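This part of the workshop introduces the protein records we will be handling. A learned vocabulary of local backbone shapes supplies the integers on the structure line. Getting from the letters to the tokens is the skill we practise here. As an example, a complete record with its sequence and its structure tokens follows.
=====
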Amino acid sequence: MKQTGLVLEGGGMRGTYTAGVLDYFLDMNLHFPFVAGASAGASNGSSYVARQRGRNYNVLVGYGDHPEYISYLRALRKKELFGMDFIFDKLPNELVPFDFEAFENRQTHFSVATTDLMTGDAVHYHDFPDRNSLMTIMRASCSIPLIAPSITYEGKTLMDGGIAAPVPIDQSIQYGNEKHVVVLTRNEGYTKGRMKGGWLIQRKFRQHPAFVKTMLNRHVAYNGLTEKLWQLEKEGRAFIIRPETPLSVSRIERNRKKLHELYMQGYEEMKYREKALEDFLKS
């Protein structure tokens, strides 16, 4: 098998689809030497790298409707829709423990994408000196503008990795991987449109023009990535796993039944494509 990287798209609660795919990988005893993720993709990827089957399900489905996970009242009061302290402190340390020891002893090169508020560029992190640094970087990667605060780490002010690197395929290529398994949370044929409420982004981040430019051009960059992935797939260098139909689940979904069904969709669709993936990896 040629060296292969695993690349995980974000998408908030749509990442429950990815959780199903990754649990099927663990059932296959399939592990990659390189994993890169942005936003929810990074969060899901960390549990996969720590080989904690079912943890992503317990977090996303088990606690997705918890009032501390998503709260519109908190969003109005504190401009924070997702409870970041709950997600990156209480859940990993108390309610659904993250296996920090297994993560620290990983054999996988793990890369987390963030976006620099000052430059609008992607910043990728590969080193996590301690548990706090890992959770801080993960939090930054999931900090969506307008509904979560920016995060300061090592002198940089960071936000959602899905802004500048929604599908961090370039990291896998630069690492030297010859093949790439890519898990998307959008169906084939999906095209991102120009963002709504651009005026609000311009107003909120008027002191960060480079970041605003990246935000307003996200649809162009994302659709360009889609073309790049299609070309890699055509060349036999990428194996893309994506929902077979458009998802009814939004990035802020709270309905536990819908989230469970989305997890099962990811699991079953990967199960159906297991032979095709094995052939890809062997070729």
About this structure: The two ends are 7 Å apart (CA to CA). Residues 218-234 form the longest helix (17 residues). The first strand starts at residue 4 and ends at 8. The mean pLDDT is 95.
